[in-house]
Amino acid sequence: MINSFRLALIGLLLLLAPAQAQPAAPPDAAFLTPDQVTTVLRARGYSDISGVEREGDSFRIPEATRYGEKVQNLRIDALTGQPREQPMLTEAQASGLLRDRGYTDVTELGREGDLIRLRATRDGTPTELRVDARTGAVRQ
User: Fold this and answer.
1) 3-class SS letters over 36-60
2) CA atoms of 116 and 122, how far apart (whole Å)
3) Residue-wise burial string across 49-77, b where 16 or more C-beta atoms lie within 10 A, e elsewhere
4) Coil, strand or helix: which one is 97?
5) pLDDT category, 140, cuts 50, 70, 90?
6) Which fold has domain 26-86?
């Protein structure tokens, strides 16, 4: 009887004991992978991305193309995928961005601060657009 009582008590203690601590995740577990960085950059208009390498808390990309223009030595935050220093879009890059989004007959009209003014046609309808040179956001 005492042995069964001991076994029951040991079983109860095992059930109530805190779960075994999980081993700590390596410190870089939250960092993006090179494939994830490439995906994020493609979504931001980059192509021909080569040599993605992690250096500490950043990724370095020696060369890529952004909306048709070569860009060198990109630094990307390894946690967020955000560029450390991203140059503003040029007028030519803004035109390429619109072409990538289905616009035709893209004409540059000039700049107003950080906004690039363009005229373009989509689905046969001409329209005047503004592209934010910092973010690439398109506004009508």
Assistant:
1) HHHHHHHHCCEEEEECCEEECCEEE
2) 18
3) beebebeeebbebeebbbbeeebeebebe
4) helix
5) confident
6) Nuclear Transport Factor 2; Chain: A, (3.10.450)
Instruction: Tell me the per-residue pLDDT of 71-84, one tens digit each, with 9 for 90 and over.
Output: 899 999 999 888 88
**Nearest alpha-carbon partner for 97 in 70, 133, 125, 127:** 133
Residue 82 DSSP label: -
Locate the domains of the chain by residue range. 26-86, 88-140
Phi-psi region of 38 (alpha: psi -120 to 50; beta: other; left: phi over 0): alpha
* 3 state DSSP class of 31: coil
The model's pTM is: 0.64
> How far from the centroid of its chain's Cα atoms is residue 128's Cα?
28
What is the rounded CA–CA span in Å between residue 71 and residue 27?
31
Can you tell me the distance from the alpha carbon of 74 to that of 64, in angstroms, rounded to the nearest whole number?
8
